[in-house]
Write a structure and sequence with these properties.
Layout lengths: L7 H12 L18 H17 L7 H28 L12 H10 L5 H18 L7 H17 L9 H13 L5 H14 L9 H9 L5 H17 L14
Helix pairs in contact: 1-2, 6-7, 6-10, 7-8, 7-10, 8-10
Length: about 250
């Protein structure tokens, strides 16, 4: 909202605040491409992030702060590395709790190998951003921007190696907005229905408990329909103009 109004400093503070609570809100910096003077937003983002990084100096020493950040980085690296191997074993456990692991987790299931996170995340990030370069001249198109917003909401869940079941509320928001403002063709509605069924209904009491734990939970099925929906969004971003009959463009405010 702040970026849409040209309030780059307020937007930078909002993104930094979210980032220092959970890392994935940093993905919102992608909205900076909408700015006519991208460098202004980049500068604001750099200054605000530096300020947030240095904020603990009010209560601790520089040496301790550096040690804390180093410890956090080591913990994150260890958890990510451990997850690559533990996720291969999770199919042997009958549970639906724990980390879902995103697209990377699904690849481990399919290949039976400890697929590392970062190469898949890099590919996903490139796929997310490439339409912005391909359709740069359309960056002011409200329909294009809405679909990109939806894509980003799904992306931060399915390419997050530490995503959990509640995280899919974010992805479902993106899928729902995408479907509501789309042309609602048969295939779009099919993707939406599959997403609702396998992300929400499949984990409710309507489904027998053994199915929920031994299949939907064990194999982290929520990721699959969300990934299909995300690929559909990316196709729309690449394709160009919205499909005939799509909802009229309304600027994000």
């Amino acid at each position: 909202m702040a970026l849409e109004r040209g309030q780059v400093w307020r937007a930078a503070v909002a993104i930094a605040t979210g980032t220092f609570v959970k890392l994935f809100p940093l993905a919102a910096v992608a909205f900076g491409v909408w700015q006519r003077r991208t460098w202004r937003f980049a500068l604001a983002m750099a200054v605000v992030l530096a300020g947030f990084l240095a904020l603990p100096l009010a209560v601790t020493s520089p040496a301790r702060l550096v040690a804390q950040y180093a410890s956090w980085r080591a913990t994150e690296a260890h958890d990510a590395d451990e997850l690559q191997y533990d996720c291969l074993e999770c199919v042997k456990r009958v549970d639906g709790a724990g980390l879902y692991g995103g697209v990377m987790q699904q690849l481990r299931f399919w290949t039976g190998s400890p697929v590392p996170n970062w190469p898949v995340q890099v590919v996903g990030t490139l796929l997310l951003l490439l339409p912005l370069a391909w359709r740069w001249k359309d960056r002011d198109d409200a329909a294009f921007r809405r679909v990109f917003l939806c894509s980003l909401l799904v992306y931060v869940v399915i390419f997050n190696h530490q995503s959990e079941s509640p995280s899919f509320v974010i992805a479902m928001l993106g899928v729902t907005i995408w479907w509501a403002q789309s042309a609602r063709t048969r295939w779009q509605t099919t993707v939406m229905v599959l997403t609702v069924l396998f992300v929400s209904v499949a984990y409710s009491d309507i489904v027998p408990g053994s199915w929920r734990s031994e299949f939907f939970g064990r194999y982290r099925i929520k990721t699959v329909p969300c990934t299909l929906a995300w690929l559909a969004m990316q196709w729309e971003l690449w394709r160009g103009a919205p499909a005939p009959g799509a909802a009229p463009a309304v600027a994000i405010a």
